[in-house]
Predict the 3D structure of the following.
Amino acid sequence: MQVVSGSVGKEKVHYVAPPRDKLDEQMQRFFQWFNDDKDLSIVKAGIAHLWFVIIHPMDDGNGRITRALTDMLLSKEAKQAYKMYSISQAIKADKKAYYSKLEEASLCSVDITNWLEWFLQTVLNALKSSKENISIVLEKTLFWDKHKQTILNERQVKVLNRLLDVGDGNFVGGVNTKKYASMTKVSTATASRELKDLVQKECLIQNEGTAGRNTSYKITGKPTETPLKLDI
C-alpha cells in the first residue's frame, strides 16, 4: 500500500506501508498494545494515531478509523463515555502541518518527539476551542432565559441569534442598520425601527464610539470582542 500524489507519470510516493504478509502480525501487536489500559494517557493516544497510520491496513478509510481510535483512547483516559471536544476538527484546522508531521515521523527516524509535540498541542487547541464554544452556548442560553417573556418578531430573533453566535464568524463588531436590513430583507427604515425596539427592550446596547450612520449595536452585557477567551 502506497500513499501517492501527483498526476500520472509525475507521481510522488509519500509513504509505503508494511508488506501484506506482515500485516496480520503488525495488527495483532497493535491491538494487543491498544487494548492494554495500564498505560492510558494522551501520549498513548498520539502514539496510537501514528502507529495505525503507519500500518495503513486498508485501501481506504484509514484516516477516519485512526481518528475514531484516537478519540476512543482519549475518552478512556478521561474516564468518560464521550468527549466535549473534537480532535478531528482540530486536525482539520491544521491539516497541512498534520500531514507534514505524519510524513516526517513515518519516514525520517524512530524519533517521534516532534509528532507528539504537535499532537499534544492539537489536543490543547481542541480543548480551547471547545471551551470557547461552550461559553457561547452558555451565554446564549442565559440571554434567552432572561428574555423568554420579551415579545419579538422572527426577524429580531434571527438577528439576535446571529449576534449570540458571533464566534462562528457572524457580525463581528455588532450589527448596524445596513447589516440588519441585508439579513432580514427589509427596508432601512424598518431595520432602524426594529433595532431601536431591541434597544428599548434591553436586548441590544449601542457600541461605544459609534453614532449617526455608523451606529452599531451589540448584545446587552456582551463584549464586542467575542468569542469569550478562556484559559485552560
Residues 223-232 have pLDDT under 50 and may be disordered. The longest strand covers residues 12-16. Residues 113-146 form the longest helix (34 residues).
